[in-house]
Amino acid sequence: xxxxxxxxxxxxxxxxxxxxxxxxxxxxxxxxxxxxxxxxxxxxxxxxxxxxxxxxxxxxxxxxxxxxxxxxxxxxxxxxxxxxxxxxxxxxxxxxxxxxxxxxxxxxxxxxxxxxxxxxxxxxxxxxxxxxxxxxxxxxxxxxxxxxxxxxxxxxxxxxxxxxxxxxxxxxxxxxxxxxxxxxxxxxxxxxxxxxxxxxxxxxxxxxxxxxxxxxxxxxxxxxxxxxxxxxxxxxxxxxxxxxxxxxxxxxxxx
Length: 255
Ligand SMILES: Nc1ncnc2c1ncn2[C@@H]1O[C@H](COP(=O)(O)OP(=O)(O)OP(=O)(O)O)[C@@H](O)[C@H]1O
Ligand SMILES: [Mg+2]
Fold this sequence. Notes:
Rossmann fold, 7 helices, globular, binds magnesium ion
């Protein structure tokens, strides 16, 4: 469904001898429809940049990206994005924040409202539609951000450390809600996280990036059916292996 081929991207960097930082060089990744992929790697390795390029927010210097869309695209967008902070507009209600991404798609106001409410129901916040962002908890704000991303009915949901700022309990419950959402909507998910436990608990495949430029250091497929036990011994062993690889990369200065 998504084929990333030989993607390269350099940012201008006056401090570097050649005047640029190469973040991606000939980067390849294939993602199957409905797959849940977690991307882990050291800070600065290029995880957010990769998502930004896939989302079309940053044009690559070279490479191709094929994204086969499913179904009718009227009133939809190909991607939904969720960041570490919810980035809600404080002067808009929860419903109007979710409807924000639907503007410019040729939908009537009533239809935008209906779609926003449907997305809020998906994340269990139907009763909070009329509230203001400051009246919500951090976890609820993050659920609104997920609803906003889902409202445009994207094939691909990209999440950049979406639960990174939440406490452990809220984080675990949002992980389970996300899995439930994923099962019900069959979206393809690219999920960036620093938390290897989270990656192994959630994903079908965990991709460890090394840099720089970013390359795939390892790829682990996790076939354990869901719901998964958080203390599963095979999962624990995999978490340790990925952590060891990550710390080897950092010790070697290869981050
Ligand atoms: N707009 C930009 N201009 C110049 N350099 C940038 C820009 N955005 C990112 N970079 C550089 O690209 C590299 C990768 O950054 P990126 O934000 O993708 O890392 P990351 O893996 O998401 O890190 P973190 O885990 O800390 O979020 C870094 O060296 C960063 O300084
Ligand atoms: Mg990042």
